[in-house]
Amino acid sequence: MNGVLVIDKPVGLTSHDVVNFVRRILQQRSVGHLGTLDPLASGVLPIVAGSLTRLAQFYLAAVKTYEGTIRFGFATDTYDAEGEPTTPAQTVNLNLEAVQELAAAFRGLIWQTPPPFSAKKIHGVPAYKLARKQKPVSLKPVQLEIFEFEILHVEGDQAAFRARVAPGTYMRSVAHEMGQKLGCGAHLASLRRTATGEFSLAEAHTLEQMQEAAKSGRVEELFIHPRKLLPQFPAVMATEETAGQIRHGRAVNLPELSAAPLVKVFCGQKDLIAIAARVAGTLFRPKIVLTPV
User: Fold this and answer.
1) Which of 147, 204, 229, 277 could pair covalently with 164 via S-S, beta carbons 3.0-4.6 A apart?
2) Could you tell me where the beta strands, DSSP code E, fall in 73-183?
3) Global confidence as pTM
């Protein structure tokens, strides 16, 4: 079974837990996801199955959108609500304008240090494994871009926010650093991903909904229509002859396209057979083939 569907991941499960659940439902091993969500976080988790797992490489730069809350008053070792406090608790009564002004400093190109409890590797070992053993974790700052970061409202010691960020951004680190700047400590209290790339909550399904659909033989109805995938790439319809050449990995002439570096090749309305890369002029060679010969 080949396809892409969007799961509304619940709090408490890892992204790998969701992948394993989908594997059991679809009864196949070839299942993956397009962007990890922490167990604390919920929301949009795109799942790829079958031959469409090969599309994952094109989603590495997908922009993510989040909503969540930051709690001020103390920091934690994981930078979120699951961790142990690392600073004494303080009574905080936030001022909306002050927090909004602080948030503005995190917009645009910034340098960010990943949390010690993260999958970033140090000499081949994930940082979180070292942190759990209370070994020193030294991660280098990385440059990334936060396109949008708005504080929506504050109540007591918590600030609600909306953010749109480049891949690799840790909202946990943003919360932690904001607490440092205010001198009171802070951590991420909740996080919900509302969109990643072209996928949003509007087309997401719960695990329960997927299970029910599978029981009635309707699980494929939950898949995203292939025409909606990778909207930044033009789509082209291949003839049976051209489709056969593409499936064998041969270069083909696509005269209706001349400037696009990558195109989606369809055989029929729903059969996405390949992503092709322009070699020269209107000559395209398959970058990945998505249907068997």
Assistant:
1) 147
2) 108-112, 121-122, 125-126, 142-155, 158-165
3) 0.91
